[in-house]
Amino acid sequence: MGLGIDLGTATTVVSDARRGIVFDEPSVMLLRRGGSRRERVLAVGQDAADLVGRAPSASFSAVRPLEDGVVTDLETTRLYLRSVLHKAGRRVWEFPIRAVIGVSVGSTALERRALLEAADEAGLRPVTALDGSIAGAVGCGIDPLERRVHMVVDVGGGTAEAVAFCFGGVLAHRTSKLAGDEMTLAVSRYLREQHHLHVGELEAEDLKIRSSAEENGPLVVQGRDAATGRPRLATVQSPEVADAVRPITDEIVRTLTACLDDLPPQAIADVLAEGVLVFGGSARVDGLPRELERGLGLPVKLAENPTTCVAEGAARALRNRPLLAAYGRG
Fold this sequence. Notes:
With 330 residues, the chain is α+β, with helices and mostly antiparallel strands. Helix content is 37%, strand content 30%. Helix 4 packs across helix 10.
């Protein structure tokens, strides 16, 4: 029995080693506020996300377990993980649940310890932290233990990372704190300034995703008119969304391309032959793979399952002791 978990700032994905993906929903939890009573979980994942901006804030609060890829509160993360396990159909009291959780390669020992402690208190034990970029590579069929340099880029909601690795070790990495969440804010700001339309976080996120799927088509978004305060629909072209997020993607590319500076010539030759693999929840944003290819000067390809490969790779790592020994983090 075992689970691979990609606990992301925006989305949580859980892969069962036997059954495959059992949870793939927003990283949101809705709590009921109560005077002397402890806060209790009312909804988690998509059920909670559907109520953001709708449930009265005086009685309910929507929380996220991570901020910029880091645990902000142990109790919140523990409650969230336990609720996710319950929704995924796992009962922590029935039997031990082994787990591998993806973490940022740039995370500190203290940040990893906080996540592992929360996971242990949620009923996951034993639990191992594995670099999310390595887990994603495994989920895409790459063997991080082979004598060949590979390079991957993981673009999530809270962070974006470029990692080069070979034969059980990380050769170089760069982390950008600008990622998918900042892209969503840029879309929201663009709609407010150019279309005079106020939209919620979920609407801006949805528009960002739809613009990537429909690169040339018109997109309809609903919100509140800035002048009248009345509900209004606006039509936005996909290239507009791409222009809105371009300052963010440009900065991400500038940060991540510096990873190449630390690689020896032979490593560059390997990466040139293999290309760079990009995955993560924000990897499909229109133009990002193309800008990465231009900035790196290397072929860049999008993973087949960019949003689930980290959890899938973490689940596979459960059966690969040499991999966990080489890349696992305590």
